[in-house]
Amino acid sequence: MKSQLLTVVALSPLAAYALPQHHRKCGSKPTVVTTGDPLSDITSFTTVPVESLPKKTYTTDYETPITTETPITTITTPLAYSDVTTFSVVPLESLTYQTYQDGYVDTIVTTGLRLTEVTSFTVVPVESIPTTSTFLTFTITPTETPTPASSSSAASYVVGGAYAKATAVSYKVPATEQCGNDDRLTLPGQPWTVANSMYNADQMVGKQCTNFDSILETVDGVKEVKWTSITNIKKVEDTVAVCKGYTNIGIGKNLNKKLKDIKSIPAYFKWDRTNTTEFRGSNLFDFITAPTEGDFKSTATSEFMLWVRIWGGQVPIGYSRGPVATFDMFGASWKLYEGQNPASGVTVRSMLVDENYDGVFQGDLKEWLDAMADKGYISSNDYVTVGNAGTEVFYGNAVMKATVALDIN
């Protein structure tokens, strides 16, 4: 996608409309008053198309009117539009202007392009406008979101047969449905917790369930957990970019060990997803490290994500700024993106595979975390405090039947 220049108006309406200067009889400076209706009083409204903002402003008073053309200054800000996860827009009907001068009311006439003449436009994201300076306009360069790979372009990768040949074994916990927004099931005698962590449920219309099915065992005695993720979340335009939560299998054994003391992190993630509507989300591994044992949420921590499958064009934090590094591991090529989570202040580094894995991933995740240490992002003396595998969900109707084996040795 070619970059486009999007011109966005600043917060000050009068500055944005660039009112011209006047010749005045009395030489007194006019008083400018801006009035507006509260949003709660406006039952319906349109937003301000940036391209329709005026190039000229005309004012008429009791003298001969003067027309002044105001130049437009374009300034690029460091915050990319794609990094603004939520924003409000300027309702056109709430902006009314009257200019008063010595008891006389000036009539303000503003000209601009008609909406019918604007082929495409954006609205003003308030949060993306810098607060340290006053700008007339600034530019935003949109980025192209990746198209999810089909099975024909899946990563070429050979999975060990032992994991795939696992069979069900008797287990004391029966199959369990979990549809509460923070339901968690700890599996006795196993290193895992089955979690339905819908941390943005207040912005979700619908339901997500993360169900425990059974425990499997390979011929080599390796245990696996079989589980099902059922997503029925309505696509709402205001929240399409909001991750509603994380349906996952978390590891609870051998955490809080220093990275240098960990011998291996064998991982196996197999899935079979059926999407009955458009679905947006991603299958990934998520790990957190920290300089201090037991720390998993302070700003001193680092979060690492390994994205193995994407649906609906989902991209990670920092994607708009481009990759910071590339890697070859697990039989595939990867790009690393980084950015700060605005909610937690934690730096997140996400590895995206160039070609989606087609239903299964297997590898030693110690190789991945060691590569992060080799790059200097963390120290080998840092502790691994969180590890899990699952799906970030945004919206859609889908069922995923999955099997995970994840251990820290």
From TrEMBL:
InterPro entries: ConA-like_dom_sf, GH11/12, GH12. Belongs to the glycosyl hydrolase 12 (cellulase H) family. It comes from Xylaria bambusicola. One of its GO terms (molecular function) is cellulase activity. Residues 1-20 form the signal peptide. This is Uncharacterized protein. The keyword RNA-binding does not apply. It comes from the Eukaryota. Keywords: Carbohydrate metabolism, Glycosidase, Hydrolase, Polysaccharide degradation, Signal. SUPFAM superfamilies: Concanavalin A-like lectins/glucanases. GO terms for biological process: polysaccharide catabolic process.
